[in-house]
Write a structure and sequence with these properties.
The complex is a heterodimer of chains A (about 425) and B (about 120). With about 425 residues, chain A is mostly helical. Chain A contains 19 helices and no strands. In chain A, helix 11 runs antiparallel to helix 12, helix 13 runs antiparallel to helix 14 and helix 16 runs antiparallel to helix 17. In chain B, about 35% of the residues lie in helices and about 35% in strands. The termini of chain B are close together. The chains are: A mainly alpha (about 425), B alpha+beta (about 120). Chains A and B meet through helix 18 and helix 19 of A and helix 2, helix 3 and helix 4 of B.
Chain lengths: ~425, ~120
Amino acid sequence: MTVPEDDARARATVDAVVRRSYGKLVALLAIRTRDVAGAEDALSDAFASALADWPVKGCPANPEAWLLTVARRKLIDVARRRRSGEKAAAEWQLLADELETNDFLEAPFPDQRLALIFACAHPAIDATIHAPLILQVVLGLDAATIASAFLMSPAAMGQRLVRAKHRIRQAEIPFRIPRRAELPERLEAVLDAVYAAFAEGWSDPVGTDVARRELADEAIFLCRVIDGLLPNEPEVLGLLALMLHAEARRAARRNVDGDYVPLADQDAALWDANMVDEAESLLLRASTHNRIGRYQIEGALQSAHVYRRRSGKANWSEVVELYNALLTLSRSPVVEINRALALAQVQGAHAALGALDAAASDRRLVEYQPYWAARAELLAKVGARADARHAYDIAIGLERDAAVRRFLQQRRAALSIASADS
Amino acid sequence: MQYLLLIHSDDSGFFALKPAEQQLAIGAYMAYTEALRKAGALVGSNRLMPSTDAAIVRVANGKSQVLDGPFTDTKEQLGGYYLIEAPDLDAAIAWAARCPGAGHGAVEVRPVRTN
């Protein structure tokens, strides 16, 4: 018999271990075999054993070492059952020896999470699954939560995760930190995955959807882990700064009625000053390396918006320059849209519409809400009301956040009133 | 591939809204329909009459039975649908998430059987 307090203590310890060490344990269990799914199964069994064992015998002094040992034994059992023959016997004997010789109670065990992260974001794996894979394998998030956050059916997400893990094993994707020459490109894939996770979390500003809101926190946490394991990489610092700047504004993005508040109208006093300060110092640190990149520029853009709102000094020319720099790195239509909106502040709405038209050839924009919202705003400014109304309609129809939808509907209605006046 | 987006919601909610709010809600659906059309994804759509106007027909033991009211006793009833064309389930889910119905009820995404 166990008492509820002991159960609760065991549960709390397990939760804490998952939080700080899930990825470390998976990495250690899978690093030789590259069998991520097998490592996760063994670890999951070990957690189940812990929940049965710890309430009775008490939590071990080093829970990670306990779990690793139990999970390794499970892996050996599986290997024994699956294979027979001399070669297999030799293999599991090797695993068993490793189990005996490693004294994890003494030294802290090595953190191989970075190697695992690079394996998850390997170019041989579909880029769209990089972020979900890292969230599951490194942070221990369950597939249903990840699926919901990424707007995918849980069954489909589960299948894709399984396939990706299979690929790591079959394609013999190495668990290692890429060499200096290939590091920038490989790191970019990792950072893109982290940012993709953050962006999904960012789309739930009020934080009613726990899965989404926590994703923003998880992405920041993950970026801190990467910064800790791969220090002084300017792009890592840039991404962390970018996310902190965005996250700092969470409380200001909606008013008390839950309505959407655009950046220009936000109460800067509601911004998280600590996050803003940290973001600023990260950008400063990044800049000392003289290796500019996408995330540093995007972080600098956030910084420019904060400066403008705090100082009251328009700095739109600098903002346009930053977007120009971003465009030289990648000709993304998304960047072109943002640049056009900044350009409107400097050269007027007509010039901005011209810039927007240049981006409009990209077919994907038909379903991209910010394009239509930007277009509607600019058309309204130049007095093309019928076109503006149509653009607002598309923007409203493409928006999944009801608060933003209401905001756009108000802008559209204001247009109708103005047109009735004229 | 075609997908049927079934909008399940509590239809009493809409009638409890003030006229201006009703206009806003209808406007959101009209905008959504327009966005689907602009993207070339719209195949068809309809709003249904309230579930209180529904009738249920079932043949049991060779005898037709007719009952009043909705098929299930839950508050959320089928209130309307969109039939859309989408490249895959992910794209269909993305459209469903944009449907105003996802905010005030639930949108069921059903792939249409083609064979």
